[in-house]
Amino acid sequence: MNRQSGFTLLELVIAIAIFALLGLASWRLFDGVVRAQQGAGHHERDIRALQRAVGVIERDAWQAVLGSVVLAPTGLQLQRSHWRNPQDLPRSERQAVAYRLEDRVLWRDSRAEGSTVVQQQKLLDEVRGLSWRVFDPQRGWRSETVREVAPLALELVVSTGRFEQVRRVLLLPGALP
Fold first, then answer.
1. pLDDT value at position 165?
2. pTM (2 decimals)?
3. pLDDT-based confidence at residue 8 (cuts at 50, 70, 90)
4. 63 near 83, Cβ under 8 Å?
5. 98 within some domain
6. Do 113 and 92 meet the contact criterion of CB atoms below 8 Å apart?
7. CATH number of the domain to which 107 belongs
8. Domain range holding 105?
9. Rounded to whole angstroms, what are the CA distances from 167 to 13, 130, 159?
10. b/e per residue 55-77 (b: at least 16 CB within 10 A)
11. Which residues, 6 or more positions from 112, have their beta carbon under 8 angstroms from its beta carbon?
């Protein structure tokens, strides 16, 4: 009798099937990890864009001149002081700032006092909804400002990208004793 050593065809088919299943499972796992990482990256980018926009609005609100915050039908307007001058050019300390929503994009327009040049800054894309309110110490939360009474707080509610509704309340100058 002549016995040959080696694998039978059935053993080879079973081994190939097991390796194919392991390869498929590994690929599915890798694909799931890559998709989760991409989703987290998109979410992180959206959060950073929203944080950046709210940070700019916060900075303007904290530096607003007392009584200069005006809610207009087109958006928010205010005057800010103590703005940074990186080039040390002779400029006024005051700056007129306006926020407007145009074609689902939140824009910030700024102009130095005495200047005709308006600088436009794109703050946020894909804005589905934007609303502003001010807190009037006499009448509470209002969608409009009254000239005689300086508001104490500014409320921003924005819907953008993956975020259904983000609400931020900012104290204005004069709110703190």
1. 92
2. 0.74
3. confident
4. yes
5. yes
6. yes
7. 3.10.610
8. 42-126
9. 61, 10, 9
10. ebbbebbebbbebbbbbeeebbb
11. 91, 92, 94, 95, 96
